[in-house]
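Hey, can you fold this one?
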Amino acid sequence: MSGSPYLCTVPSVSPAPRVRRVELLAVLSLGADLGLGQPMEHAMRQCLISLRLGDLVGLHKDDQAVLFYVGLIAWIGCHVDAYEQAKWFGDDLALKADFRLVDAAGIRSMGNMLGQIGAGRHGTDRVGVVLRFFTGGMRDAAVMLHNHWYAANRLACDLGLTDEVGKTLRYTFERWDGKGPGKREGDAIPMAGRIVNLADVIEVFHRAGGVESAVDVARTRRGTQFDPALVDLVAEHAVALFTDLDDTTWDTVIDREPGPRTYLSPDELDAALTAIGDFIDVKSPYTLGHTRAVAELATAAATLMSLGADETANVRHAALLHDLGRLGVSNAIWDKPGELSVAEAERVRLHPYLTERMLASSPALAPLGATAAQHHERLDGSGYPRGLRGEALSPTARLLAATDSYVGKLEPRPHRPAMDASDAARYLREEVRAGRHDADAVDAVLSAAGHKPRRRREWPAGLTTREVEVLRLLARGLSNKQVAAQLVIARKTVDNHVEHIYTKIGASNRAQASIFAVRNALMMPEDGEFHS
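Sure. Predicted structure:
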């Protein structure tokens, strides 16, 4: 609160340095790496290989710019349907890590995919998953690559990249032989798309087995997945392509951005971080709208606490990035309905650390990472990932922790239903009495939560209130039958609502509907839901 003697004695944080758009893209590439089951900086090394190939084919300067951005963020959409991936194949990170190891259109690849159905399950449980896969899972699998492009393209647009970048992202899953999701083949695939597709795979094989391994896989897939002419260039210039690749650093890639250095204005930065926060939430149906809700409530609470402009901006922006590390944990864990094993719980405890490590790469974003990494810490040292206590937790970190805890209790999780607002408030006050949450931070959060903006009466895309209710449940992974039961309406009525929703918002499946929902703040609690 404004009268807190503790807060009055805390010095203001320094104003954040200006942020370049490319820094946000590079951070996202690190998150995509983790979501692909790859080590961080896979995409950065892939980007450098792509640029070197672009030099060899003599790409025009404008095309080199497209190649740079596509090479950096080609795979950022691959978590958008991680819920479906884990549902059918178990560990979605392991599934995607294996994707590059075999020719995706070959018999071996099909056998590998079929062998992973129901992974992690046993006996009749796995048999049931296999049987259900051939009725519903095949449909989910068929649209996955399209969903990945769709999500990457939407985020690229939100972050201010050119239409040409968005168009080229569409082709990163296409194959020279025309057996990709869009059935484009040969020269119909933009050169940048062909280059990134090749660079992605040979980076993985080079990291594992050196130059010879990278050249071998390129030659093996010559004329099928890869452009023969590009493969020949890889074989001819292999040494130059891979020289110093293991020494790739953040600065190595950032400094290769074509054109003059441009920085985001405060409004542009806030909009970009909001888009990223929405994008993170799409990883699981259980977190849709979570990040935006935390950021809005934390901002309101910071104002009530009379924090300075810099502290308020810090807690808001840290809130928009606080769950970035969730991309590095499998949905087989996030969406598990039962109790987590010790190993699974340890992976969950790692996600704030991953957030901090990704943001630490950028001097401009590192202060946000330091705050974001503390959102699961507690005053008594019982939190994670470091078990910090007392004075080691900054005021902004205390506020973020209280806000995240409160908002999370209002949302459903696979192992529990959502709490109502009064129970969530009671839980937070009990945490204060137990010495885990800061009393001033909790008071501010609960006070701000009681004064939410007026209820929205007009919904985007002409949706009705009932259609928004259906969309929310659909986005969280409920089947039409489950939606009908929860809303106490007929299954056929739900079917009609879903058909109308998809038509209105231009979507065709749950993952795409989820993107629409978070981009339009439809998952955020409405007026009254925060009241305590």
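Residues 191-220 form the longest helix (30 residues). Let me know if you want another pass with a different chain boundary.
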